[in-house]
Design brief:
Blueprint lengths: L10 H34 L15 H29 L7 E8 L2 E5 L5 E3 L1 E5 L4 E7 L4 E5 L4 E5 L5 E5 L5 E7 L11 E7 L1 H10 L6 H11 L3 H4 L17 E3 L5 E3 L2 H10 L20 H13 L9
Parallel strand pairs: 1-5, 4-10
Antiparallel strand pairs: 1-2, 2-3, 5-8, 6-7, 6-9, 9-10, 11-12
Length: 310
């Protein structure tokens, strides 16, 4: 059966539905007005009518009125849409982070506890989920129609996407950006579950190290601990408590230490902190996106670990 709209399965879906309905109503009213005027003029000024056609016709008041009305209507839609957009791009502080890596032609999902999935995303209902999206190769696009969420995944950048599922079910997601030969096969399913069932599913995936513990091993493997641990003799920034805080930069200004900042520092040492020499080596081309995500998870875990490596 053909549906007028996709399933409505997230809190954002309702907002988008109402916005879409408002756009349809205003567009229909404008269409009705224009077609109605055309029909009226066709009848009134037809060849056989006795309507006087000579002399000036003053209609500026009517023109100003209907132009202003439609303008205000669409301006209202613009601001309404802007608020919906900002809400969709501002995840709650308590949202659960899940990392999603797109690559030709699959989606790899990494949960904070270390559980991983391919082309499937299990989430609980009633809890905000924040997806940290990354691409290993080309531009992809993560699109879940039932949640009304869609975002380009650009190489070299992290993108945030969040939603809160409201119904239990199984909903498709797609790559909606042409990304190569097998683009049409780059799809999967979001499986929404009751929180208790989701906890059982996580436990059933078998014992595994959390992303933070895997990142800790990589932190030592790549030699990061030699500079960034408190006992190091090298003058380098300490990392405990770094995530989410402003960092003063050389030359002035501040930047928030989010996932994108940490990634840029690991790969390119892009933002030099004030008071530190630019001695950190670049890891671009020497470390995979998956390992970067694990290192970020470890550094984020240090925020609440006093005395840990900083």
């Amino acid at each position: 059966m053909t549906r007028f709209l996709p399933y409505t399965a997230s809190t954002l879906s309702h907002e988008v539905n109402w916005l879409y309905l408002g756009l349809l109503i205003i567009a229909f009213c404008v269409l009705l007005l224009v077609v109605g005027m055309m029909a009226t003029f066709c009848v009134r000024y037809r060849r056989a009518s006795a309507t006087v056609r000579g002399g000036p016709v003053k209609s500026f008041r009517f023109e100003i009125a209907w132009t202003s009305a439609t303008f205000l209507g669409f301006i209202g839609l613009f601001f309404w849409g802007a608020f919906v957009y900002l809400d969709a791009r501002t995840p709650p502080r308590d949202a659960v982070p899940i990392y999603v890596l797109g690559k030709q032609w699959m989606w790899k999902v990494e949960h904070p506890g270390g559980q991983s999935e391919i082309n499937t995303l299990h989430v609980p209902i009633g809890r905000p989920i924040r997806l940290v999206l990354a691409s290993q190769d080309v531009i992809h696009d993560f699109f879940v129609p039932a949640f009304r969420v869609k975002y380009d995944v650009v190489p070299g950048r992290y993108e945030d996407l969040w939603f809160e599922a409201i119904t239990v079910g199984r909903y498709p997601f797609f790559c909606s950006q042409l990304c190569g030969t097998f683009h049409a096969d780059m799809r999967g399913w979001v499986v929404t579950m009751e929180p208790a069932d989701f906890a059982k599913w996580l436990a059933a995936q078998g014992p595994s190290e959390s992303l933070a513990l895997q990142g800790k091993a990589l932190f030592h493997q790549y030699g990061c601990s030699g500079c960034h641990e408190p006992r190091s003799t090298i003058h380098a920034p300490l990392l405990a408590g770094l995530y989410g805080r402003p960092v003063a930069l050389q030359g002035g200004g501040f930047i928030i230490a989010d996932e994108a900042y940490i990634r840029d520092q690991i790969l390119m040492n892009k933002h030099i902190p004030a008071g530190y020499p630019p001695k950190m080596p670049h890891f671009a081309g020497h470390i995979s996106e998956e390992d970067v995500l694990k290192l970020i998870a470890y550094i984020k875990s240090l925020a609440s670990a006093p005395g840990s490596a900083r």
